[in-house]
Description:
Mean pLDDT: 78
Distance between the termini: 86 Å
Strand content: under 5%
Low-confidence stretches: none
Number of domains: 2
Largest sheet: none
Number of helices: 5
Order of helices and strands: HHHHH
Amino acid sequence: MNDPEIRVxxxxxxxxxxxxGDHMSAGRLDIDxxxxxxxxxxxxxxxxxxxxxFKDLPAPKPTFIAQPVxxxxxxxxxxxxxxxxxxxxxxxxxxxxxxxxxxxxxxxLAVMAFFVVKVPFVFLxxxxxxxxxxxxxxxxxxxxxxxxxxxxxQWRHxxxxxxGRY
Length: 166
């Protein structure tokens, strides 16, 4: 198995480089000699070329143990995501009720702020809160009411259509 004419691969070269690094750390090789030997490791083609570099050195030496060949698994390529659909806020009735309770509180705070600051522009704050709330919850609330009405009409229609058939 240690035939010097067998060609080496990257794994064997890396093993030889690690061994040379260990010898340099132990003080057996100076930096210049380490540089020369690592260059020869990179240029080596056969096991004999690598073993020649370790003739005058004790262990560790390259062992040339057959490494199992691991075939890379084909990874599925994820599909490119398309454009995200526009997100709509689907508010709950609790949030709508909280907003409805917030409006009088904001008006009270505006009146209190008017007496402290004496600036009439504080009354614009509740107006802005109402506009923002209508933008956030208004359309959804109306759409929900329309859907409920449609659902109720469909149910009534089905009840009339199937009356007496059950």
